[in-house]
Amino acid sequence: MYSYKMLDKISMETLHRAFVDAFSDYQVKMDLPFWKFQQMLQRRGYHPEISMGAFKDERMVGFVINGLRNWNGKETAYDLGTGVVKEYRRQGITSDLLLNIEKLLKEKNVEQYLLEVIQSNESAVQLYSKHNFKIQREFSCFQLEKDKFIPQTTCTVECVEKIDLKQFKEFWDVEPSWQNSIDSIYAVPEAFIYLVARLDHSIVGYGIIDKKTGDIPQLAVNQNYRGKGIASSILTEMVQRTESPKVSVLNMEAHLKPMEDFLVKSGFEYHVGQYEMLLKL
Question: Assuming Cys at both sites, which of 41, 144, 241, 252 could form a disulfide with 247, CB separation 3.0 to 4.6 Å?
């Protein structure tokens, strides 16, 4: 018999321990020390009041961890992570957690529920589809080994203290995913390095990279200045400045062919594909 509890009275250490246990055999290897776990939760808007754990004899054996924000004009919950410890799987825990969460979100007048799931994880995709989640977008994830990167510079790139990202939304081709959104970056501003390229006294491109993990949430160039090596110059500066031996671009929309071609040409390798799925409550 399992008990289900909200996570508002559960310590971060307990949650981290359960998370690491549940994802120990995940399709994508997770390197998640405690500091990185805390940063992930903060960046993605963790709300313990709408997150839930499954417990067996006081041990957390399953969980749904959620964030909460306004997303595309609607109050939206976001699944930061759903997992069950290996020996407790196939016992209906995930379905029970999701049903409880869906009921809670409706009571709190949350309008929709967003998540991402690895495309090859067929059982998870089927489970979410069964709960009426619908695929919205397909994402691709890429990784670069830093020591294989060949620097390219055609313009001056400078490091700045911060960037008013809303000012540069016109540089975007698509809306970023939840974890790459403006709100997610501003949630942990100290975690990132901010770089801009200027031409004709104006900022024509910018890039943001995590100082320690090498994650690039945003890289964009003004459409009128593309094809001039500006993105390569920004990328070169980002790769040199991060402490991480790997650089990653996560959850880029799969149909962005020019960006994909740029990443592959720069030495990135395709890592995994994800679906963005949405449940309207």
Answer: 144
Please determine, for residue 70, whether its predicted confidence score (pLDDT) is greater than 70: yes
Q: How many CA within 13 A on the CB side of residue 196?
A: 15
**DSSP type of residue 177:** P
Q: Please, are residues 237 and 195 in contact by the beta-carbon 8 Å criterion?
A: yes
**Are residues 271 and 162 part of one domain?**
yes
99: containing domain = 3-110
For residues 54 and 90, what is the distance between their CA atoms, to the nearest angstrom? 14
What count of Cα atoms within 13 Å lies in the side-chain half-sphere of residue 69?
21
Say if residue 96 is in the same domain as residue 150: no
Whether residues 99 and 189 share a domain: the answer is: no
CA dist., res. 22 & res. 94, Å (int): 12
Place of tokens 């290996």: 86
Give me the residues paired with residue 195 across strands.
159, 207
- 70 CB neighbour count, 10 Å cutoff: 10
Q: What is the share, in percent, of the chain residues with pLDDT greater than 70?
A: 99
Side chain identity at 98, as an amino acid letter? L
- When divided into structural domains, the chain yields a total of 2
Residues 6+ apart with CB under 8 A from 167: none
As a whole number, the mean pLDDT across the chain is 95
Q: What is the largest CA-CA distance in the chain?
A: 67
Q: What's the confidence (pLDDT) of residue 27?
A: 67
Q: What are the Cα distances from residue 75, in Å, to 27, 68, 198?
A: 31, 7, 37
Reduce the secondary structure of 222-244 to three states and give it as a string: CHHHCCCCHHHHHHHHHHHHCCC
First to last CA, the chain: 29
